Structure formats: structure tokens, C-alpha cells
Amino acid sequence: MNAAISANLVYSPGLDNVIAGETAVSSIEDGLRYRGYAVGDLVERCCFEEVAYLLLHGELPTQTQLRDMRTRLSAARGLPDSLARLLRSLPRETPGMDVARTAMSVFAHYDPDVGDNSQAANQRKAERLIAQMPVAIAEFHRGSHRLPSVAAREDLGHAANFLYMLRGTAPTPAEAKAIDTSLILYAEHEYNASTFTCRVITSTESDLHSAMVGGIGALKGRLHGGANEMVLDMLQAAGNADQAEAWLLAILARKEKVMGFGHRVYKAGDVRAGILKPITQSIANAAGFDAWGKTAAVIEEVMAREKNLHPNVDWPAARLYHALGIDRSLYTPMFVMARIAGWTAHVIEQSTSNRLIRPRGKYIGSGNRTI
């Protein structure tokens, strides 16, 4: 790199503390806020559909706007016949995130607005994808277990419908609220790796579905969305509460990464984990399965004492989904279900005031050479 140029550039590995753009979608400086609203208030007073509307349209919906959005979501809860057949023909062991990635690409072929990148068209596409992805995930799951399809019900909300399509029985209000809460908490999180991927793709003037495929690819990694699946593996390996401390100390001695703890941004703890923890415990108690709660408590104490690290949202989410009887392979696809709202909000924002995202690289190879 030319010395004169390099003197004016700043190198930060992993882009730590680098401001890569402006956004009005969310902030994490004063706790997590969506469009200015604290996420805790949104969980307490709103459902996921309202939060998705807020992210996509900038304001919380009126009752009429919410009713109309629910009508649009209901109308979109279906799959093209060709996609339904494809999902049921995939190998049973196909990773859930690969299923989500494939479904997203196929959705593009059937979307009437696929070639229109206007804000209004992107908002319509976003709402359809929010409705469609849970159907695809449930369809693959049931097909891979040789179970018949379960059509969505018009009388159930977004979260309740997912559990109904997945399990074939309507969830309890507490179960539906727990999933609704997790979807709200996973819906958006500023310039994380997958969101930044979506914005980079959008900055080239590519289309919304392509950006979503890129986001899914980024979220698949275990250092991002895949962490929630790894949490379950850790809890199983740790054993009961009496064994957990010794197991964890051995893990730390080997300098292995403990999934579900720490965050690139939150150093004093993830507010989302604090919100979800009591809900997770309540659902686990209702299911008659609280052993992992005791194990988790020991691990949390030791991690705080030994490493000054605190749980992130993946830590309670994995236990919640397990207590609800949801297969481990669906944990990260459920993250996709929620984050589509945030990703598409960022695609819309990037498209509205676009500049091609093209950073520089620090060259560390050989000096000038001749043949």
C-alpha cells in the first residue's frame, strides 16, 4: 500500500469500533432500542407483528394498520407447490440454515415485486418473507419426520402460528408469548455481521432477496447465529449442577470458547438475555424440565467470576427452545425468522440513501517483484 495513502487510513482488525454507516433502525449505545424504543418496553407492550411494522415502516402501527398487516401476513402464509415438494424431498440431515437459504432463493422466483427495488416494493417483499419463512421451516421439519403439513390458522398470531405449524397443536398462551418475545429480541441488532452483509450486497444495487441470502449465510456461522445451537451442546456436556463447575474450569484451562457468553459490543451483559432468562425458566418449569436451569446458573456464576463474561441472548434462547420441544437444528433458522425484519429494514434504509460499500485492505504480502 502506498505510504501516503496508508497514512490517512485506520486499520482495525474485525472492524472493531469502526463506524461503517448511519442508521435510524436501531441503537445499542443506551441499551438496545428499535427506532428509539427500548426493547424491554416493546417486549412488554407489543407483539412481534407490531415490532416488525415499526422496523419496516418507522412507526408503531395503529390498530387499523396492525389489522391490515396481519391480513397481509395471513395471505402470504403459504408456499409455492414446487417449493413445498422440494422441501419434502431434501435429505433429512440437511442443515436447517441450508434449508432457509434455499427457500429464500426460491421465494424470489415467485415474488411479483422481485424486480422492483423501490421502498414500497421492498416493504411488501419484506412482509411476505416474514410470513413465508416460518412456513418453510415448519414444512421441512415435518417433511423430514414424515409428518403431514399443517396449514396456518387465521385466528393465531405470528408466533403461535409457527408453533402450531411445527407441532400440529396450538400452543398455550405462555408458550406463544415466549416465542413472540424471543422473536422480538432477535429481530434487530444494528451493524452485526449478517446485517452488514445485507447492506454490502444492497449497496451494489442488488435485490432484497439476494441480500437476505447473504444474511443467512453470515448468520449460519457459529460465531454469530449458530451460537445458540452450540449452547445446547455445552449444557449437555456440562452435566448436572454438581458437575458443571469442574467441567467449565477444565474448558477454560484448555482455552476453549464458551458459547453463549460475551459480546463484541455488550461488555457488562446483554439486556436481551436478562429479559429472556425468567421467561425461559418459567417455560422450563411448566415443562417439568429445570435441571439445565441449575446447571446454567452454575456456569453463569463461574464465567462471571473467572472471566468477567456474562450471558448473551443465545444462552437462555437455547434452553427456551429445548423446553418447548423444538429440534436443535431449528434454533438458528428461527433466528432467521426474526431477523428478516431487521435485515429488510436495513436493506430499505441502505437503498434509500446508497453509497457503494468498498473498504480497503492492508497489504501484507511480498514487496514489488519482477520476473
Task: Describe the model.
The protein is mainly α. The chain folds into two domains: 36-214 and 337-352, Citrate Synthase, domain 1; 227-323, Cytochrome p450-Terp, domain 2, CATH 1.10.230. 60% of the residues lie in helices and 2% in strands. The protein has a three-stranded antiparallel β-sheet. A hairpin with a 2-residue loop joins strand 2 (33-34) and strand 3. Helix 13 (241-253) packs parallel to helix 15 and helix 14 (271-286) runs parallel beside helix 16 (314-323). The longest helix has 26 residues, at 119-144. Mean pLDDT is 93; it is low at 1-5.
Main β-sheet, spatial strand arrangement: 1-2-3
CATH architecture of the largest domain: Orthogonal Bundle
What CATH calls the topology of the largest domain is Citrate Synthase, domain 1
Average pLDDT score: 93
Number of domains in the coordinates? 2
- What is the CATH class designation of the largest domain? Mainly Alpha
SSE string, helix = H, strand = E?
HEEEHHHHHHHHHHHHHHHH
Quaternary structure classification: single chain
| Binned strand content | under 5%
Q: Output the number of helix runs.
A: 17
N-C termini distance: 20 Å
* Secondary structure: helix percent: 55-70%
Main structural class: mainly alpha
Unreliable stretches:
1-5
By CATH, the superfamily of the largest domain comes out as: Citrate Synthase, domain 1
Number of extended strands: 3
Shape: globular
If you compute it from the alpha carbons, what radius of gyration comes out, rounded to the nearest whole angstrom? Answer: 21 Å
Task: State the major sheet.
Answer: 3 strands, antiparallel
